[in-house]
Amino acid sequence: MIFFSKTRNFIVNFNGFISNSKASKCIYYHDIHSDNKYTEMSTPVNIFIKHIETIRKRNFEIVSNINNQKNQIKICFDDGFKGLYENLDKLHLYKIPVQIFIITSLIDTPGYLTKSELVKLSKDEFVDVQSHTCNHHSLHALSESIIKQELEDSKNILEDICGKEISAICYPKGYFNSTIIRIAKEVGYKFQYSSIPGKYFDNLYHVVKRRSLVQFADEKYLINVLRGGDNILSHWYIFKHFKS
Ligand SMILES: [Zn+2]
User: In angstroms, what is the span from residue 104 Cα to ligand 1's centroid?
Assistant: First the structure.
């Protein structure tokens, strides 16, 4: 697994040790599972709960909206797999607010959330449903009119299902550029989420939020992400994900 190679772990753990930041951060997963696993990217629910305990032990508050420079963590889930719905009781039990980014073309397909599950999730006080486009295409490879369609149609579909404003977009596979940022603003997204690590308030290109992938993190790695250890990888991710 390239993302969790020994070198990467070493860099993040070493940099976390020396930076020891308390800055608020957004972390993300793809799914959680108990009996039924819907994707190889899924995190066992018991490991996820251990992550929650580690985050709280280190005096970070888990929030739905970060409004403080320090000591807050926001948790996102990408793609809209079914495991999260099946483990909703855990979110309630441990009072864990999450934001989920849905690929609208996959609603009602095997392994993904159904429309009726999404309706329930959108009414849940711990879940904030948002958009991950219609088809999860790499947006930079598309024409401006198709980018607009991907962003606008998914927003409209989710607004119809959830009966609320959809205000955040998460870029499929992390790829974005200035055209995508502009079109997302034009179609009404107030928040844009990348897969580039860093401090929550250290926006890229003024509006783009940073996030850290922790779905396979062991305790040491997670602690060092919380300390800002993966911020050092930001430039490498920008090189990889920003497609000018
Ligand atoms: Zn995705």
Answer: 11
